[in-house]
Design a protein that fits this description.
By secondary structure, the protein is mainly β. It is about 15% helix and about 40% strand.
Length: about 230
């Protein structure tokens, strides 16, 4: 069994993104990375090129990634049970694994949406503009709104009737709904996504170019009229 590897840029990008969801991660043996937020309202999964030879926990993922960035092309050696060795040239770093019990990690079973009530695509530029508008206008809410035959994505402050709004049409619908998210929960890698929303307050964002999926909980005040 090969116990040494280097991590490609794609995997490092995924790990950096996952650190924004949960700064701890339990990596399973194999070539799939999964994480879940401490509040259990975001779950992310990615297939990667590397094949990890063992299960291991990292308590501070940002620290681990910053440590890797001290090297040009580090080699990771997983031959020990309690730590990994980061090697480059004459340099060695011994990085101890975390106890899996202290890490909030996703359930083993596969996640399935209970229903598929609304589907649409969101282009990379659309997602970027929505999140930038939310930051500029300090708007906490992102809503997928179905009304008058179209689906709009709207960033707004639901609690404020006079709040600024920024909206983009992303599809057509014959239903009326308002599926609400917290902007802070849209912690996804920039890109284009296929989005499926269940009225049971769960959504699935599938990246069109990467083997990457996010399950994001909706806010309980979401409304769906069939």
């Amino acid at each position: 069994m090969n116990t040494t590897m280097t991590l490609c840029d794609n995997t490092l990008m995924v790990l950096k993104n996952f650190a924004g969801i949960n700064n701890s991660i339990l990596v399973k043996k194999g070539s799939k990375l999964r994480t879940m937020s401490v509040a259990k309202n975001i779950l992310a999964e990615a297939d990667i090129n590397e094949d990890f030879p063992r299960e291991f926990g990292i308590y501070d993922l940002n620290q681990f990634l910053n440590g890797l960035s001290l090297h040009q092309d580090p080699n990771l050696d997983f031959s020990e049970d309690t730590y990994l060795t980061i090697r480059e040239g004459q340099r060695r770093v011994k990085y101890f694994f975390a106890d899996p019990q202290v890490i909030v990690s996703p359930p083993e079973k596969e996640i399935n949406l209970p229903t598929q009530d609304v589907c649409f695509q969101i282009e990379s530029i659309t997602l970027d503009k929505l999140l930038k508008a939310a930051a500029v206008y300090q708007l906490p809410d992102l809503s997928a709104v179905g009304k008058d035959g179209v689906i709009k994505l709207v960033v707004r402050d639901k609690k404020n009737d006079t709040s600024n709004e920024f909206a983009i049409v992303v599809g057509e619908t014959d239903k009326d709904f308002s599926f609400n998210f917290k902007v802070e929960n849209i912690r996804i890698i920039p890109g284009s996504y296929n989005v499926v929303i269940s009225s049971k307050l769960l959504s699935k964002f599938t990246n069109e170019n990467l083997s990457l999926v996010y399950y994001i909980a909706l806010e309980p005040d979401s409304v769906f009229n069939q």
